[in-house]
Amino acid sequence: SQQGEEDPQALSIQEGENATMNCSYKTSINNLQWYRQNSGRGLVHLILIRSNEREKHSGRLRVTLDTSKKSSSLLITASRAADTASYFCATDSLRDNRLAFGKGNQVVVIP
Amino acid sequence: DTEVTQTPKHLVMGMTNKKSLKCEQHMGHRAMYWYKQKAKKPPELMFVYSYEKLSINESVPSRFSPECPNSSLLNLHLHALQPEDSALYLCASSQGWRGGGELFFGEGSRLTVL
């Protein structure tokens, strides 16, 4: 099942700007993860936030999680052309432990 | 070694062919996965192996047949595929499959069915 949903789905920004993506989900979760996928390649894990955490940082990445609203956001600060990729959130459901991927955000960073 | 290696990178096959996709990891992970991804869509789970046993089959058609010969290897045998099966097939592994840990993905095998 695909329960993670991101909004917006396409984002085009200038290099150096910040990029923000949102993800909503429907059921209770163990954790929420964000992955990056460069065109036609494998997914790379970016960050995992557990259900009892509200915010997490990793380098230029900042993830927030609001379990009351069943939503998460991914912020990429000071974007670079190399950040051009698709970004997926994935939720690990308490119900069945399956990792369900959301629809994905296409981010284009213009040099 | 934090890599998941998939071969071949590209595969073109006819509907009557039999082929296999291969996946290998040497991270000591006990869970391995096959995902299917169509263009501009998220990955869709097909199979999960945990400790070399099939734990999840997401109602995948029998023309896809997974095999886990040992804890490092995962195969996907393909037979009598349809053109709509053309997609990127991703293999992934994790330390365990319950608990929602990080998945390590291979670069994928791009399959075209003629």
Task: Kindly describe this structure.
Chain A has strands at 5-7, 10-14, 19-24, 29-37, 43-50, 55-58, 61-66, 71-76, 85-93, 99-101, 105-110. Chain A is mainly β. In chain A, the strands form two sheets. In chain A, strands 2, 4, 5, 9, 10 and 11 form a six-stranded mixed sheet that branches. Chain A has a five-stranded antiparallel sheet with strand order 1-3-8-7-6, with no helix packed on it. The relative contact order of chain A is 0.36. In chain B, strand 7 (64-70) and strand 8 form a beta hairpin. With 114 residues, chain B is mostly beta strands. The interface between A and B is medium-sized, with 23 and 24 residues.
Key structural traits:
heterodimer; A: 111 residues; mainly beta; six-stranded mixed beta sheet; five-stranded antiparallel beta sheet; 11 strands; B: 114 residues; seven-stranded mixed beta sheet
Task: Please summarize what this structure is.
Chain A is an all-beta fold.
The count of strands of chain A amounts to 11
Q: Please report which band the strand proportion of chain A falls in: under 5%, 5-15%, 15-25%, 25-35%, 35-45% or over 45%.
A: over 45%
pLDDT averaged residue by residue of chain B = 93
Share of residues in strands of chain B = over 45%
Helical/strand content category of chain A:
mainly beta
Terminal CA distance of chain B: 36 Å
The coarse overall form of chain B would be globular
Q: Major sheet of chain B, described briefly?
A: 7 strands, mixed
Poorly predicted sequence stretches spanning 5 or more consecutive residues of chain A: none
